[in-house]
Amino acid sequence: MALIDNIVGTTGQWVASADPRATLAHPLAWLKKTSGYAAVNRLVGLSIPFAPRNGFRVEEVRPGYVRASIRLKGNKNHFGSLYAGAYFLVAEIPGGVLTLFDLGPSYTPILKEMTLQFLQPANSDVTVEFSLSPEQVAAIQHDADTTGRAKFTLEGVLTDATGEHVATSIAHYRVRKKGFTEQNPA
């Protein structure tokens, strides 16, 4: 586990130091950004092999923010739109990614509950974005450091390729601090 934790930590530092707006006009900055996202997606695939097999991909991650997508191809339901399970996949994993890269590998994210409200069928790939303010991240980390665990909620707006709002997710997470032992005041 220590090796994976080191890889997650190093990848998080690499991605956090990359410019998310980098383009080919600045090839080294673009390479740093794209290689960082490739590493994040590889880590997701190692942890959850189901995700890349189903077309899940982290498109951008930076402090307090993650955007991910899932392909329609391979995830169609019986009437040709995105299968409900694919919505859940794209709405659930980014919370863990956000937690790991904002708090670090010493904290384990756990999904406690998630709901999805379907608004209309998606006939294309679907994207979702999540964010936490620096104050929210600090509060989560403080609670986890103090009590060994912390709760937080992420609400996501899932959109299709045209930008139409196709679903809303609400996910309740708990973060656990690895190796936490409660201190008994003497």
TrEMBL record:
Name of protein: DUF4442 domain-containing protein
Q: Which residues form the signal peptide?
A: none
Pfam families for this protein = DUF4442
- Report which superkingdom the organism of origin falls in: Bacteria
